[in-house]
Amino acid sequence: MKIAFVGKGGSGKTTLSALFIRHLAAAGRPVIAVDADINQHLGPALGLTDGQAAALPALGAHLPQIKDYLRGSNPRIASEEVMIKTTPPGTGSRLLRIVEENPVYATCARPVALDEGSVRLLVTGAFTEEDLGVACYHSKVGAVELLLNHLVDGADEYLVTDMTAGSDSFASGLFTRFDLTFLVAEPTRKGVSVYRQYKEYARDFGVALRVIGNKVQSADDLAFLRREVGDDLLTAFGQSDWVRRLEQGAEPGLAELEPANRAVLEQLRATVDDAFAGRDPRRYADQAVHFHLRNAESWGNARTGIDLADQVDPEFTLPVPGGRVARGQATVGV
């Protein structure tokens, strides 16, 4: 399953995404963690020092190599130079799996040892002073969109992404690349404002959205969230001394997390697992094509000098779990 954590800046989405990643890893589940936030904090939230986090290889810095690997022998893509962030896979494309070794992971992913288990971490890279005035942050997350478009993930495998704060996620088609989106909301008017924006923008794209209340201190807080977000409210994470210790620089073990909050993490996992059977590979492929054609018309054709609509393989969808392949066969791995 491909899972996104979104929310207002300061809502606690990075903390909750890191806790969920740790919970999955502790259960022995294969996990790839992706930091796609403009403020790169997922590494430290998973226990890396600032120095270790700063040394992580940025996806955006290796975009040409990533493109060249993913295009494989796809005859519709002549070179990596004409492959844009939305280029969908087709016959001959190389696909990625959660549990495998490949040049993309070797170059960009780094293992992070946790107190229980370990995960692979990918980061987009920070928005630097050199980018000011000459680049958009969403050019950095283009690598994440490409990876998700080429990812084959099966049951009990997870890719968890800490997205950029607020509604900035809608500046590209990345928001449609997830099977389930968890929106973290504090029990305040500002806390639910991003929920309303997200709900409105995502309405036409079938985005599966569930709300996690955070920093919930009382029955009144919970009642407020229920009133404001209705049936989209899945659960609520309470005030946590464990999280406070973590934010103060301690390294508490996951087993020390309050039982009620650990139960919330298990509820998230159960919700994700229950949603697996409802995935629609055809719709996923159609949305990838939709955003690719939009990007091609708005800027891609002019930049590459070709009609990028020709990159669409109408007979291709990603392999479905269990080894069956929907129309159009792709090369998996090398």
Automatic annotation (TrEMBL):
CC per GO annotation: cytoplasmic side of plasma membrane; cytosol
Pfam families: CbiA
Signal peptide interval: none
InterPro entries associated with the record: CobQ/CobB/MinD/ParA_Nub-bd_dom, P-loop_NTPase, ParA/MinD_ATPase
Gene Ontology biological-process entries: negative regulation of cell division
One Gene Ontology MF term: ATP hydrolysis activity
Top-level taxonomic group: Bacteria
Domain CobQ/CobB/MinD/ParA nucleotide binding: 7-123
Name by which UniProt lists this protein: CO dehydrogenase maturation factor
Record organism: Kitasatospora viridis
Lineage of the organism: Bacteria, Bacillati, Actinomycetota, Actinomycetes, Kitasatosporales
